[in-house]
Design a protein that fits this description.
This protein is of the alpha/beta class. It has seven helices and 16 strands.
């Protein structure tokens, strides 16, 4: 480990669950490295629904806990050939299960969670990709859309939904979108949606081979007979044949694939706002107000 690294790092932690006021920036010891781990200087993370749920609800490791699932940064220490000091990387850390939050200036992670960051965009922006992209990719894999099939994505301009629309188009499927606000229709079309709906009641009945719900909306009446209904939301999961949940799993191969799509210009990331980690409470307030088109980044 480099002798030039500080012995402490600043991190965003909670000591109790509640509103944005429970978020605290504090100095903690620099994480020690176990075998197979690397130390990363974080450039940015992002806000996801799981982050405010972890903050607000009594889920995840007991406080004090460092929050955050996404990471884009540079390797600064470690003896892992695949990711050398200076390499730019991205990662998704399942913070609720492992307690390894990413909202810190220095983060230690197992090397098998890392993938090389996309080279076609600023490193900070790559922090918008890991959790949302992996969630969208794995949910679509569960739904198995085929070329020419009709796919409906609910929440189609949200963090996961916006990537799901693009990834579904990449499979050759024909994609329609359900958005929460009329003013978001044009954004869904820009992502590749052919038709865009605003009210679930307006959706055509029994039209879609695949419904991918990223917003907690019951769109089961739009599912064709024999279709596949996949949801990433906490609820509802309609009682229809073919309905299933998709739970995101850490997967470096998926991250690497998503990065190649970004660099090929086939997957676009939209950034709504950037907040320094020292302004984390305001970032949460803005995120929870909803209506933003794109991800909220937390910069370090």
């Amino acid at each position: 480990m480099s002798e030039n690294l500080p012995m402490t790092t600043r991190a965003v932690q909670i000591d109790r669950h509640g509103g944005p006021e429970v978020l605290t920036v504090r100095e903690i010891p620099r994480p020690a490295l176990a075998d197979g781990e690397v130390l990363i200087a974080v450039a940015a993370s992002s806000l996801n629904p799981v982050d405010w749920k972890t903050r607000a609800w009594e889920v995840g490791p007991p406080p004090p806990a460092t929050l955050g699932w996404d990471l884009a940064g540079r390797v600064v220490a470690g003896e892992v050939p695949a990711h050398r000091v200076g390499d730019e990387v991205i990662a998704m850390s399942a913070q609720i299960a492992t307690g390894r939050g990413t909202w810190a200036e220095l983060v230690a992670l197992p090397a098998h969670l890392l993938a090389s960051a996309p080279t076609s965009l600023p490193l900070e922006d790559a922090a918008a990709l890991p959790l949302a992209g992996t969630t969208a990719l794995q949910a679509l894999r569960a739904a198995e859309p085929a070329p020419g099939e009709r796919v409906l994505v609910t929440g189609a301009v949200g963090g996961v939904g916006a990537l799901a629309v693009q990834l579904a188009r990449h499979t050759g499927a024909r994609v329609d979108a359900l958005v929460s606000r009329p003013e978001h229709r044009s954004a869904a079309v820009e992502l590749g949606a052919e038709r865009v709906w605003h009210q679930p009641a307006d959706l055509p009945s029994a039209q879609y081979h695949v419904v991918l719900d990223t917003a907690g909306v019951d769109a089961s009446h739009a599912l064709a007979h024999g279709g596949r209904y996949v949801s990433i939301s906490d609820e509802p999961l309609p009682a229809v044949p073919g309905a299933r949940k998709s739970y995101v799993q850490e997967n470096t191969a998926d991250l690497a694939y998503l990065a190649t799509l970004v660099d090929a210009g086939e997957l676009r990331l939209r950034i709504a706002e950037r907040h320094p980690f020292t302004d984390i409470r305001a970032a949460h307030e803005r995120f929870e107000a909803r209506g933003l088109l794109g991800k909220v980044l937390i910069t370090f």
